[in-house]
Amino acid sequence: MNRKLSTIFMVVFVALVFVACDGDKKKNNKQQSLSTMEESKGDSTMYGVCGDNTGMHVLELITVQGDTLSYVFDVEDGATVKGGILAGDRLAVVGYKNADGENEATEVLNLTTLMGKWRSIDKQFELMEDGTVLSGVKEESQPWTAWKVYNGKLLLNKDTFSVNALGADSLYLENAHGIFTFTRQK
């Protein structure tokens, strides 16, 4: 009887282990397919240089592929343009096609203004043109080493930030942990 009971126990145990492993496998597959879906969506940001025909309500963007696109935008809405627009500056533009069939910019981030040296109370870093970040604080435990703009957000390593404001001497970033203020370092 004891042998029969231990055999049943062993079969149930093996079955439970098999089910648990299969559940983890399905969970991992679900996570992998979710991250694959996120990657397949791609970057909705258009990159290029601000063209000479940029005016009060129209932005001319010469894309990295060499195409010239026109975007309408609301110049009174300070949230749309971050870092100003000047012919020749590198830009990241997020937008959509409006009801009139025009490209409408919802966010314009001036990458030329964004690059450079920034500091806060506990961080000092420089955003380089090649996508690297140079840290000015040697003791920092997890310094940022790379940056890029993806879907209109600033990625510093794996940290994702919204750029709330960008000026000649100030940068305001926000994520789930709060709002971070930086000033231009000379």
Automatic annotation (TrEMBL):
It comes from the Bacteria. The lineage of its organism: Bacteria, Pseudomonadati, Bacteroidota, Bacteroidia, Bacteroidales. This is Lipocalin-like protein. PROSITE patterns: PROKAR_LIPOPROTEIN.
